[in-house]
Specification:
The protein is α/β, with parallel strands linked by helices. The chain has two domains: 210 residues, Rossmann fold (3-Layer(aba) Sandwich); 37 residues. Helices cover 49% and strands 13% of the residues. It contains eight helices and seven strands. Strands 3-2-1-4-5-6-7 form a seven-stranded parallel beta sheet, with helices on both faces. Strand 1, helix 1 and strand 2 form a beta-alpha-beta unit. Helix 1 crosses helix 8 and helix 6 crosses helix 7. The protein is globular. The structure holds nicotinamide-adenine-dinucleotide. The site of nicotinamide-adenine-dinucleotide has 29 residues, from helix 1, helix 4 and helix 6.
């Protein structure tokens, strides 16, 4: 498949799943807008190597996706640099764990802003470009926690359930514009977001990181195996293909059987 000439904004693509998806799209010819936080030199190296290796145009936006105005600027800048916006991957996300009664208000607000509201603001700004082109792809990275819950994750679970609902509305509103909108629901992926949770568990339980990795998988997934950013990149790529032209409003689990139980 060739995505040559298409431009993809992938939020939170300086790390983890977002980087896996940005790489898969670049490998198949898409121009990329990288976004996310991190060391400026490392991000510039990443930007330059993706562009060189795959022969595509790659720009970087440091937009904080908790801020609507920065998302608007990111989309406008992408259209100026690349000509249009064809694919958006709403991937940036954060986690915080605590029982509801102790959950800090500011953490709730940040998780809802970054994991949910950012998708609304990005779609609002980018969909007019896709409608004008008669082609577009919206891919929202939800989670197994968009379909089922776990204790201590109220804001995250609420945001991810909300993201799946939002995906369905975008799908309905764009059904006859050549645009599809789908959610991907990963199980455990060993990225910095999950590595922190494992390190916290190892400290609390006075055990090793390796032992906590095993336990984390066993608690939730029948398959005791991490999904990788490359697996998720391949699924996102499929959703951008012509074969997926009528798949819209769906949620794709890639979770080692987590939500089959
Ligand atoms: P990660 O921590 O490796 O990457 C998160 C990315 O988001 C980073 O690039 C970070 O800089 C960026 N980011 C964070 N806050 C931002 C902000 N305000 N503005 C712009 N960028 C911001 O995490 P990951 O595991 O790759 O997670 C990516 C997505 O996948 C998240 O939405 C997460 O909820 C979801 N997810 C992850 C897992 C998993 O097991 N890792 C499972 C299910 C769903």
């Amino acid at each position: 498949m060739s995505l040559q000439g298409k431009t993809a904004i992938v939020t939170g693509s300086t790390s983890g799943i977002g980087l896996g998806i940005a790489t898969a799209l670049a490998q198949n010819g898409a121009n990329i807008v990288l976004n996310g936080f991190g060391d400026a030199t490392e991000i510039e190296n990443l930007r330059a190597s993706l562009a060189k290796e795959h022969g595509v145009a790659v720009t970087y936006s440091g937009a904080d996706v908790s801020k609507a105005s920065e998302i608007k600027t990111m989309v406008a800048d992408a259209a100026t640099a690349h000509g249009s916006v064809d694919i958006v991957v709403n991937n940036a996300g954060i986690q915080f764990t605590s029982p509801v009664t102790d959950f800090p208000d500011d953490k709730w607000d940040a998780i809802i802003a970054i994991n949910l509201s950012s998708a609304f603001h990005l779609c609002k700004a980018a969909l007019p470009f896709m409608k004008a082109n008669g082609w577009g792809r919206v891919i929202n990275i939800a989670s197994a926690h968009g379909l089922v819950a776990s204790p201590q994750k109220s804001a995250y679970v609420a945001a991810k359930h909300g993201l799946i609902g939002f995906t369905k509305v975008v799908a309905l509103e764009t059904a006859n514009n050549g645009i599809t909108a789908n959610a991907i629901c990963p199980g455990w992926v060993l990225t910095p977001l999950v590595a922190k949770q494992i390190a916290d568990r190892a400290a609390t339980n006075k055990s090793s990181v390796a032992a906590e990795e095993e336990k984390l998988l066993e608690e939730k997934q029948p398959m005791h195996k991490f999904t990788t950013p490359e697996h998720l990149g391949a699924l996102a790529l499929f959703l951008c293909s012509d074969a997926a032209a009528t798949i819209t409003g769906s949620s794709y689990s890639m979770d080692g059987g987590w939500t089959a139980q």
